[in-house]
Amino acid sequence: AALELKEHLKNRNEMLEGIKRGLLFLLSKQSEDGGWGESVEACSTKEWVPCEDGSQVIQTAWALLSIVRAGEVLRLEKDEQSLSLLAQSDTSAVDAAKFLQKRQCDTGDWKQENISGVFNKSCGITYTAYRNIFPIWALARFSTYCQ
After folding, report:
1. Sequence-ordered list of residues with C-beta below 8 angstroms from that of 33, at least 6 positions apart, any chain
2. How far apart are CA 127 and CA 116, in angstroms?
3. Per-residue pLDDT of the chain (147 residues; tens, 9 = 90+)
4. What's the whole-model pTM score?
5. Nearest alpha-carbon partner for 62 in 88, 38, 46, 84
6. What is the CA radius of gyration of the chain?
């Protein structure tokens, strides 16, 4: 049983380190306007390539969903590094939510922006429903997270 517990703790620590690395990456790519925007070129370069048009609603929603989920995990931790990262990510999440709210149209819709997917490394795809599904989902999760 002690060996199983040791393995569980090892895997948990690896998971936490992965969450922290991912969160730090997201925080480092957030734009001053509170959003995220990555070019489809990143699919072929396998590196972050900023979107020429700036922050995008769908990508900001994806980032906000990730930050909220990481925050839920980090809230359970008591070490100084986790708490510091949690404070940074909470500020980032607020900025992302504000970005999404600012971009929302009076009709409740969000405008269609750039390509949101790539098929077969060469064909850009626009999933028209994504512009509404992901921001609504992200704002709902953020709202619940703040309670």
Report:
1. 54, 55, 99
2. 7
3. 555 655 666 788 888 999 999 999 999 999 999 999 998 888 888 899 999 999 999 999 999 999 999 999 999 999 999 999 999 999 999 999 999 999 999 999 999 998 777 777 677 777 888 999 999 999 999 999 998
4. 0.89
5. 38
6. 17
